[in-house]
Amino acid sequence: MNALLHAHSGLRYLVLLLALVNVVVLVKGLATKSTPGTLERILGASFAGSLHTQVLLGLAMVAMGRFYPQLIGHLVMMLAAAVLAQATLTINKKRPQPGHQLPLLGAGGALVLILGGIMAIGRSPLAMTVTGG
Known about the structure:
The chain is mostly helical. It has helices at about 1-30, 40-65, 70-95, 100-120. Helix content is about 75%, strand content about 0%.
């Protein structure tokens, strides 16, 4: 269980970094009116994939008995972030002319939900502690 907690807590930094880089690249693409390319697709998939992994690690911890009342808000916000990030990428990919706006909305919205979800359990997004519960 401790290994899951450490993995979940450590992966948070990668998820936050990928979200920030994704937002910056998408804003730059929107500002320059360029066509989304490989970089945007790789960053979007990496962000969504790491977020899905984070959600699975969190659900595994809950399934193994690590639950306390504040987790309800945390779980709801994290699941919403994963759904938002994935849905906007999928919809954008199926468009005849994919753009930067929808993935930016997804990544930015997911980032806000992630930060809110972290704070819902009384933690700081950049805190180095892995205890709690």
